Amino acid sequence: MKKNIGAQLALYPAPVIVVGAIVNDKPTWTLVAHAGTMAHSHLMVSLVYAHYINQEIIESKKLSVNIVDEAWLKEADRMGVISGNKEDKSESGKIDYHTFKPVLFEFPTYEYFVTGEKVGDCAKMN
Hints:
Organism: Dorea longicatena
Protein name: Flavoredoxin
Shape: globular
Number of strands: 9
Strand content: 25-35%
Structural class: mainly beta
InterPro entries: Split_barrel_FMN-bd (IPR012349)
């Protein structure tokens, strides 16, 4: 029953999260769809090294993790599209959710889903 699917990102859909940190004394956020629980005491977040937010996460080893629900999807998508190097995200507010209804990110289609329903295309909501 084994089948070699090659080098593909096959563990999708995944919960969409917004990672936050304080960089140069200002809060900033970025959208992440590569995160997971490694153990009860460890969370894995995968970010390309060049991300603006990484400088503080690497130095302080501190970050916030916010699970995105549909009400915050447009703002969360914006956090993933703009760079903290180019725009101050500190005025954008923060993700605050009361009802847990996660949005999933499907790869390689780059689509967002809520319980299987597509609600937007990555980087095309603004």
